[in-house]
Amino acid sequence: MKITNVIAILSGEGVFVKVETDEDIAGYGEGTSFTPRAVIGMIEELKPYLIGEDATRIEHLWQMCFRTLFARGGPVTGSAIAAIDIALWDIKGKALGVPVYQLLGGLARDKVRVYGPVAGKTAEEIAGKAKKLADRGVTAIRYRAFHDWDALHLHDHKRAVMQQVEYTEAIRAAVGEDVDLILECHGRYDPDYAVMLAKIVEKYRPLYLEDPIRHENPQAYRRLRPFTSIPLATGERSHNKFEFRELVESGLVDYLRPDVCWCGGITEMRKIAAMAETHYINLVPHNNWGPVGTAASMHVSLAFSNVALLELPASASDPKDLNTDVASPYPVVENGYALPLLGPGLGVEFSEAAALARPPKPGTTPKLKALDGSVRDW
């Protein structure tokens, strides 16, 4: 089955790829990134390496895309290869008439526990949203504070710590002890402030702290790890197995959070999961919420034995609230667990017309500064 074309699709819903073959079987992938036009450009750069190749040789084509580049790695390459790779798995599943998770060894679990994120500009608002999620059967909730400061382009470590403590206390009181809390720190804190936060919130028994410090230097977790018993999680901004190696081998984190659309696709995420398994580290896959990426995230979460949770939009319990016209169906969620997609390949139908009908919106991430005007992390 030869690849005849690779088409990059830029949409307000994300960056998508359509891979066409000479057997009239097409696959779709997603590589959403914070630099979508750069990812589109990288997909075009990789296209000549793919045309005329056998679409069923997924591992070979992954190596081709990664190793033929002299400058490799990083978010742009990781996202572009991910989009292509996911599309190839979609093709192979369709050709064989089975879901992708069957190609990965079958179901490692019957369903995937999911967590829902909530946001709010006050403790009362975010606690109310968390309570609604818990009442719908969601058993794990992720949140962060300082949404109100993003609009002001401000981040102050101490103020953010105190607000996260306030939100944590309010959410725990609202949802009770049976719901797991995940503190999202977004990689904003310097290590000493991450220690401050961890010490104060430990009494509220969070499931883990997510990205408490910046991601560039994994060894910086040595400044946090000895001071808290709260599990630590990171990895959404790592883009291939080589970038995950130090996190795994250091033993400094408890959960890895690769995103299948950013870390090189299903092929690479399978290797990251296997590497983590040898160190008894579980995965909580990051999900960029894109419609194809969500489907791909479901398949790897069903097939890999060491997946603990999957990020899924909070409204997953109410499909009518979701925009499913780009790729459908959306995973069904019952009592806090997502059920397998049943169709061949990724199990979703992709609408190019719907994707193109939503043009990308220009914009930037918040340009955060400290009180003294110096740059802070978003």
TrEMBL record:
For this UniProt entry, the molecular function terms from Gene Ontology, in alphabetical order, are:
galactonate dehydratase activity
What's the encoding gene here?
A: dgoD
Q: Where would one find the signal peptide in this protein?
A: none
Q: Which SMART domains match?
A: MR_MLE (SM00922)
Q: Where is this region: Disordered?
A: 357-378
Q: What is this protein called?
A: Galactonate dehydratase
- Keyword RNA-binding attached: no
Origin superkingdom: Bacteria
Instruction: Supply the alphabetized keyword list.
Output: Lyase, Metal-binding
Pinpoint the Mandelate racemase/muconate lactonizing enzyme C-terminal domain residues. Answer: 123-231
Q: Which organism is it from?
A: Paenibacillus artemisiicola
Q: Which residues form a coiled coil?
A: none
